[in-house]
Specification:
Layout lengths: L15 H13 L12 E5 L2 E4 L4 E4 L2 H4 L8 H13 L11 H13 L7 E6 L2 H16 L3 E5 L8 H6 L16 E4 L13 H18 L6 E6 L2 E2 L5 E2 L2 H14 L2 E5 L13 H7 L6 E4 L10 E6 H5 L14 H16 L2 H20 L5 E7 L2 E6 L8 H13 L2 E2 L1 E3 L5 E4 L7 H21 L3
Parallel strand pairs: 3-15, 5-6, 5-7, 7-10, 10-11
Antiparallel strand pairs: 1-2, 2-3, 4-12, 8-9, 11-12, 13-14, 14-17, 16-17
Length: 452
């Protein structure tokens, strides 16, 4: 079966069939929608996909964290087909469909928030989830302002793009909404030189508090929004003591704490959510946003928050046509059932420990591997020059080398010098081993040419 195969490249990339389709793409789709890899998928199973020319690729990007249970999970396919036999769509603002309610009930049980009695709404994407979380926070608190962080990525819609740190994502698309203020995220690998762990965390907390003097009074802040593990920012996990401190700041000032789990959720961290760790630390968020792997590839996003928070939002101000679509809800219920019944978060943690330990060994002899970090199977490897400055050119060469061998990996980080590991959580042991072999050989080839 395809899901058990290993990568095998039979043609130049792109192959002749892929090249023809890519040429059609160039003629039909805006150039502003960029595509990194010269691959045209034909079918996919597990962590593997086959292109139209018969090349087999091992996917360590998984739709940027969408395919936690892999391509074409048979149980999810069955669930969607069964739902399609009855109806595709029922708009929740017009008529109730039970799948929406069942999925909301499930998330209300498993999503960790500070308030135990929870409610959930559905949207179509991560950006929509973030936009609605902000609306909910503003409605619940009666306050206008939002605090976000350096390195953040929250989406490409107008408000979400404003919350996103990287300006290239909205170059020439302004003006942007106001009321968004940015603090320094605790990027511990690049904390001020000479600082201990404790000193660095205190520094980042002080930078956050400075916003209350320099940008917005705390009484005007509705929410602080953070990714538990920054995605585009470089797969940087939020330190435990920093999360605790932010939770205290929110509690003292009546600010809501929003965890953006769009990329980190649904088993990838070794638990269902990184917020489960926060809950164990005694500092759960007030609101959690979700999307990507929630429905195994069908567009769906969600916002879960305490009942009290939702009760202060004016009726009719949230919702939408396709949010909580019947097919998506059916898929999501089966995705969660699969994650739980097969103990996939536990397997993810075990696989991440193996990969982390192996790359740590590589680091001993390859100085260009500056840092290895993450939580569970959301790992980032930061590549540097001798002076510790970012090495994005090396990363580009590594990614290109790996692609030619059939391994798909992707760049991340504010400086473009981090390689992310986001393989589907259903990956086989043999695929992990082969992926690591390709990754290591791709690094070795690039390092030989590196003069930085």
């Amino acid at each position: 079966m395809l899901k058990d195969e290993l990568p095998s490249i039979k043609t130049d990339l792109p192959g002749p069939k892929a090249k023809a389709i890519i040429e059609r793409r160039l003629d039909a789709i805006p150039d502003a929608i960029a595509c990194i890899y010269p691959c045209v998928i034909k079918r996919g199973e597990g962590a593997i996909f086959e292109d139209v020319d018969g090349n087999i690729f091992l996917d360590w990007v998984a739709g940027v964290g969408v395919l936690n249970i892999g391509y074409s999970n048979p149980e999810v396919v069955k669930a969607v087909c069964a739902q399609a036999q009855d109806y595709f769509h029922a708009m929740p603002n017009i008529v109730t469909h039970e799948g929406y309610i069942a999925l909301a009930e499930k998330l209300n049980k498993i999503v960790p928030t500070k308030e135990q009695k929870r409610r959930t709404m559905f949207v179509n994407s991560g950006a929509e989830a973030i936009e609605n979380a902000v609306k909910i926070a503003r409605g619940a608190t009666g306050r206008p302002n939002i605090i976000v962080f350096s390195g953040a990525f929250h989406g490409r819609t107008l408000l979400a793009a404003t919350m996103t740190a990287k300006k290239a994502y909205y170059h020439g698309l302004g003006p942007m909404p106001d009321g968004i203020y940015r603090a320094d995220y605790p990027y511990m690998y690049r904390a001020p030189k000479g600082f201990s762990q404790e000193e660095a965390i205190n520094y980042y907390i002080d930078r956050l508090k400075a916003l209350f003097e320099e940008a917005s009074l705390p009484t005007d802040v509705a929410a602080i929004v953070a990714e538990p593990v920054q995605g585009e920012g470089g797969f940087i996990p939020a330190p435990k003591e920093w999360v605790k401190a932010v939770r205290r700041i929110c509690d003292v000032n009546g600010i809501l704490f929003i965890a953006d789990e769009v990329q980190s959720g649904f088993g990838r961290s070794g638990k269902m959510f990184v917020s489960n760790y926060w809950q164990e630390w005694g500092c759960p968020p007030d609101i959690v946003t979700m999307a990507k792997s929630i429905a195994g590839g069908i567009p769906l996003g969600a916002v879960t928050a305490g009942e009290t928070i939702f009760s202060n939002v004016v009726k009719g101000t949230i919702g939408g046509t396709f949010g909580g679509n019947a097919l998506a809800c059916a898929a999501a219920l089966k995705v969660i059932e699969t994650l739980e019944s097969q103990n996939i978060p536990v397997k993810a943690k075990r696989n991440s420990e193996k990969v982390f330990s192996i790359i740590k060994e590589w680091q001993k002899t390859i100085y260009q591997i500056g840092d290895i970090r993450g939580i569970g199977c959301m790992m980032g490897i930061e590549f540097i020059k001798k002076d510790k400055s970012p090495n994005p050119l090396l990363v580009k060469e590594i990614i290109n080398n790996a692609m030619k061998k059939g391994l798909i990996i992707e760049v991340a980080g504010s400086y473009g010098n981090v390689i992310r590991i986001l393989f589907p959580l259903v990956i086989t042991e043999a695929q992990i081993d082969r992926g690591l072999e390709i990754f290591k050989s791709s690094i070795d080839e690039a390092v030989k040419n590196d003069r930085a």
